[in-house]
Structures are given as C-alpha cells and as structure tokens.
Amino acid sequence: MANVVVVGAQWGDEGKGKIVDWLSERADVIARFQGGHNAGHTLVIDGKVYKLHVLPSGVVRGGKLSVIGNGVVLDPWHLVKEIASVREQGVDISKETLMIAENTPLILPIHGELDRAREEAASAGTKIGTTGRGIGPAYEDKVGRRSVRVADLADEATLAARVDRALLHHNALRKGLGMEPVDRDALIAQLKEIAPSVLEFAAPVWKVLNEKRKAGKRILFEGAQGALLDIDFGTYPFVTSSNVIAGQAATGVGIGPGSIDYVLGIVKAYTTRVGEGPFPTELHDEDGQRLGERGHEFGTTTGRKRRCGWFDAALVRQTCATSGITGISLTKLDVLDGFETLKICVGYELDGKQLDYLPTAADEQARCTPIYEEMPGWSESTEGARSWNDLPANAIKYVKRVEELIECPVALLSTSPEREDTILVTDPFAD
Ligand code: GDP
Ligand code: IMO
Ligand code: MG
After folding, report:
1. Tens digit of pLDDT for each residue in 248-285?
2. Would you list the DSSP string of 187-237?
3. Residue 379 and residue 118: Cα distance in Å, rounded?
4. Pocket residue to mutate for ligand 2, from 235, 274, 308, 329, most atoms within 8 A of Cβ
5. pLDDT digits (tens, 9 = 90+) for 92-124
6. Which fold has domain 267-424?
7. For residue 392, is the peptide bond before it cis, meaning its omega torsion is within 30 degrees of 0?
8. Distance from the alpha carbon of residue 322 to the mean position of ligand 2, in angstroms
9. 266 C-beta closer than 6 A to ligand 2
10. Boundaries of CATH 3.90.170.10 in the chain?
11. CATH 1.10.300.10 spans which residues of the chain?
C-alpha cells in the first residue's frame, strides 16, 4: 500500500505519535492534515522522550519529508518554539525536511484570547474544556473567510488587508465580551517579524504531494485528536473544531480520496478522555484510578488529568465505520496487566431498549447506560512484549474479543511507550 492514514478512534491520546513514528520508517512523507498544537504526541526512542504538538511525528527520523497541510491551523509563534525545542534534542529541521502549505490558516493571539475568554465566561456544564490554544476561533475564521494564511505573510499590503478583515469581526466580538480592542499595528508588526521563520518552509503542498504520489512515494498521514472529537461525528458540542476522521486526510493536504489505500485506527485498550463531555464507561472508582496511574494518563499538551474508563467496543465499532478503518493498532495493552476482571462495553440500554451505537441527541446520550461483558484478566506482564508468543492466553483472548466486537482486525499491538515494543500483525504498507 502506498498511502496510509493514521487516525485516533476514541477521544484522542490513543498513542498515535508512537505508532506514526514506528510506521514512518516505511514512509517517505509524513503529513499532518488537521488540528493544531492542541495535539500532544509522545514518542519514546531509546529512553529519550519527544513531545510533538504541530510538527509531524516523522520529523524525528532523519531523511523524511514532514508536511503541515492546509487542514491544520498553525500558530507561527508556537511553531518557532517547537522547532527550537526539537532542534535542541538533536532533530534536524530544514526546508528539505519540513514543508508548510501556503494555504494554511494561522492561529493569531486573538484566537487564544477568545478561546480562553469564552471558556471562562461559560457556566458549569457548558464549558468544553478546550486546550485554550485558539483552535476553535481559528477554524471559525477559516470558514468565515477572514483568516490570515501563510501565503499572506509574504506581502505587506495583503497582510494588512487580511488583518483588517479579521479585526472587523473580532473587535465587535471582543466588545461584547468586555475585552479591549486589538492593537492593529502591533499585530501586523508581530506578524511581519515572525513571517520569515514561517515562509522559509512554505510550499504548494498539494503539488508536491501529487508529484510524490505519481513517483510512487509512500505518504503517511498523521491524524490528531480522535474520531469522538470530530466536529461532525463526535460528542458535539464537546468536540474539537475540525474533521478528525480519515476522510479529512485528502482535503487537509489536497490529494484525491482515491489516493488513500489503508486507514489505521489507533485504539487504546481502555478509554480516556480529557476535557468535558459524555463518557459512558467512565470510572470513578479504584479501577479508574488504577488505569490512570498505570497508564500515566496526564495530558501531553495541558498536563490535565485524563478521565479513564473501560473499553467501549460500541463506540469504536462506530468510529471504525465513520473513518473506514481497515485495521487497528491496539495500544497500552500492558496497562491492563494485573486486573482480575476486565469489562468491555458492548452496547447501551436506553429507556428499556438495547442500542448497538451511541445516539446523537445529548439527552439520550445522558440516559444511556453501558451494557458490559466481563472477561478474565491476566496476572503476567505484557509490558515490552514484541511477539504474540510473549502474550498470556487471557491477553490474546481479550484482543480477539475486541476484534470481534469492533468488527475490525488488529494490525499492530503496542505494549510500552518505546518505539520497538510493538507487535506487527499486518503491515499497513504491505501490498
Ligand atoms: P497521542 O496523542 O495519540 O499521540 O498519544 P499521547 O502521546 O498523548 O498519549 C499516549 C501516551 O501513552 C504517551 O505517553 C505514550 O508514550 C504512551 N504510550 C503509547 N503506547 C503505549 C503502550 O503501548 N503502553 C504504554 N504503557 N504507554 C504507551
Ligand atoms: P491528540 O492529538 C485529547 C480535546 C480538548 C477538549 C476538546 C476541544 O494529542 O490526541 P480544542 O482545544 O481542540 O478546541 O479542545 O478537544 N482535545 C484533545 N483531547 N487529545 C488531543 O489531541 C486533543 N485535542 C483536543 O481536551 O475536550
Ligand atoms: Mg495526545
């Protein structure tokens, strides 16, 4: 297979970074196609930890082309900081190894301010629990046709006109929220100052990727967030502001949907969520605490404690469908070591009826109670296992049951944060 899309199949933090890094050995190009620096992707290579937010996880391997596609919203000041921080870790970043689409919308300081002001103003129960990075407001400006985009940084007159267009909207909004109007000249000066650091990497990504594709190069698409945070198919409004599902990979860089050969869904062996919103299998007991402690479930971007719960097969079956997932990578199996009994949600009960999917209406979601199936756990350690033979029989039974329930095969299994602690079942890049 030439082109593989990696997407999160739950509420994010499934271990996409580790798997993208692992798979990137087989790829020529690694491309981000949505989201921004709300993402936090962790890679552990020979004990060294890399935390990436907007840079594709392929940057850590030398000799690959990393791409930030137009579907991303880019904070140029954050970009410069992240590049500096990974360079300090010895990663080589140059025009040859990083390309940013010219039509990528920028996240400006006004977006972060608005994001945080709205969250502060929201009453309990209506807060989204965003990362505060300005993601939502930046995407709003994109569809509102008032973004400043990467290409606009190259020309002073265009830049000023784009800023004025955005401020017409933002100053009115800020007035309503009791915020100071934006200092236009200072914002333009800030953008002019940062412009060369971004323009250095700017390129017509759609063209480069189409040429790569024709030349038979392999493209690995790196999703951020997870399908349950998708703007259309997630637990709206407690979602992020972009399409996260695999269909976005094509529009997020400018290739045709027929160029996608394999969709790999990243699935944690249990469930976590950071931020607000429904979570049917959430645990508030010792088991939940144990999952959080064993899985080190703290956000990579905000450091917030992640909510933890049992594996929800009904939800993952749903996300396998909406993303057209070919195979999954099951991660963090080792975190389940030592549980006497494991529970898997197989559907929901709503007003006396059984459902095999989570309904869309918020009031119905709130009334849904999970239907659980129990499985025996295992006392042996799976941490660091690199082959099926290293797994205890009950762990294999658990994986097989997950496959049956979600109606999708396991292609990869991950048993620790380390790059090489990965079991390959089916190579997504194999023809
Ligand atoms: P992402 O946002 O999907 O890339 O995931 P994050 O990096 O935010 O969170 C996943 C966390 O789990 C990171 O700290 C990874 O190092 C870690 N991780 C990934 N795979 C495994 C695994 O198989 N076992 C364990 N114990 N940790 C893992
Ligand atoms: P990765 O790529 C987990 C969540 C936030 C919040 C909601 C909206 O590391 O899996 P936003 O700032 O996007 O407007 O916040 O989405 N969220 C994530 N949760 N992993 C992520 O990324 C996330 N990116 C956003 O916590 O609930
Ligand atoms: Mg993350």
Report:
1. 999 999 999 999 999 999 999 999 999 999 999 999 99
2. HHHHHHHHHHHHHTTEE-HHHHHHHHHHTT--EEEE--S-GGG-TTTSSTT
3. 47
4. 274
5. 999 999 999 999 999 999 999 999 999 999 998
6. Adenylosuccinate Synthetase; Chain A, domain 3 (3.90.170)
7. no
8. 19
9. no
10. 267-424
11. 109-198
Q: For ligand 1, say whether the CB of 268 is within 6 Å of any of its atoms.
A: no
174 is in an annotated binding site: no
- Mention the CATH class of domain 4-104+201-262: alpha beta
Question: Does the annotation place 259 within a ligand binding site?
Answer: no
Q: What is the pLDDT of residue 299?
A: 83
From 331, 336, 415, mutation site for ligand 1 pocket: most ligand atoms within 8 A of C-beta: 331
In the chain, which segments carry CATH 3.40.440.10?
4-104+201-262
pLDDT at residue 374, as a whole number: 98
Active site residue 41: yes
Which of 53, 64, 111, 142 is the catalytic position?
142
Number of Cβ within 10 Å of residue 361's Cβ equals 8
Q: If you write DSSP's letter for every residue of 344-406 in order, what string do you get?
A: EEEEEEETTEEESS--SSHHHHHH-EEEEEEEE---S--TT--SGGGS-HHHHHHHHHHHHHH
For the segment 360-371, the average pLDDT, to the nearest whole number, is 94
- Whole-model pTM: value is 0.97
- The pLDDT of residue 379 is 97
* Superfamily designation of domain 109-198: Adenylosuccinate Synthetase, subunit A, domain 2 (1.10.300.10)
Q: Which of 21, 37, 41, 64 is catalytic?
A: 41
241 lines ligand 2 (CB under 6 A): yes
pLDDT in tens, 62-99: 899 999 999 999 999 999 999 999 999 999 999 999 99
**Cα 101 from chain centroid (whole Å):** 19
185 is catalytic: no
pLDDT over threshold 90, residue 2? no
